[in-house]
Amino acid sequence: MTLIARTRARAVETLTLDSPANRNALSAALVAELAKALTECAGDEDVRAVVLTHTGNTFSAGADLRDPPDPDALVALLRQIVELPKPVLARVTGHVRAGGLGLLAACDLAVASHTASFAFTEVRIGVAPAVISLTVLPRADPRALARYYLTGERFDAAEAARTGLLTAAGDDADAVLEPVLDGLRRSSPHALAETKRLLTARVLEAFDRDAADLTALSARLFASPHAREGMTAFLERRDPQWAV
User: Fold this and answer.
1) Whether pLDDT at 1 is above 90
2) Inside any domain, residue 221
3) I want to staple 126 with a disulfide (CB 3.0 to 4.6 A). Which of 79, 81, 148, 226 is the partner?
4) Is the pLDDT assigned to residue 17 strictly greater than 90?
């Protein structure tokens, strides 16, 4: 079963997360298939830019709790997006949760419609946004992240844009995206690659410095009793035992 749909128009490759049964959660299979598609885009001279989008009303629900990816594989995917020698743009018209925000923040540009919503829900299932911090922390406002990391609150597209998680938001994501794509199509591929290298240097520094520690933290937290209770409560659609 294909989990990533692919289309191309005027040198822009669109990769669509297409796993509606689990709300495009980051399963081991989806992560592997997306990584393969990105590798092919990187080596294709006819691809000027990549758009990452989704089917259904959810961009990504975060890690698939039934078939989670290996933390090292998720780190590799996020770094692959950051290092891809072509701009990667996220197009969001639905919900983004937990690990999906790491995917969003890995992209060079991100646009969303006002129907989108966002939340770092890790603390509510007994873990922390560890691995995704590699891409989220260098991009977004620290004070805003302190609130949303610690509370798991939901916030809207306007707030996501204000905090730096989005480039722009509007009533129509495609209307926001099209001028950006037009600019990329008018730009030198070599210049785009070198400019992206300048823009992502700080993010890659975080990978070099922190990836091993955050991967170990993620593995430890997901193996904890708190995570077992939180994930069981989530799957059983009940409050975890610590809720008051």
Assistant:
1) no
2) no
3) 226
4) yes
pLDDT > 90? residue 97: yes
C-beta of residue 173 within 8 angstroms of C-beta of residue 92:
yes
| Whole-structure pTM value | 0.96
Mean pLDDT of 45-53: 97
Q: What residue numbers bound the domain in which 25 lies? A: 4-172
Is 102 inside any structural domain? yes
In a domain, 44, yes or no: yes
Domain contains 220: no
pLDDT of the residue at 66: 87
Which CATH number do you get for residue 164? 3.90.226.10
Domain count, the chain: 1
pLDDT at 132: 97
Output the average pLDDT for the chain: 97
Q: Rounded CA gap, 242 and 244, in Å?
A: 6
Q: Which amino acid is at 107?
A: C
Q: How far apart are CA 57 and CA 95, in angstroms?
A: 6
Can you give the length of the chain in residues?
244
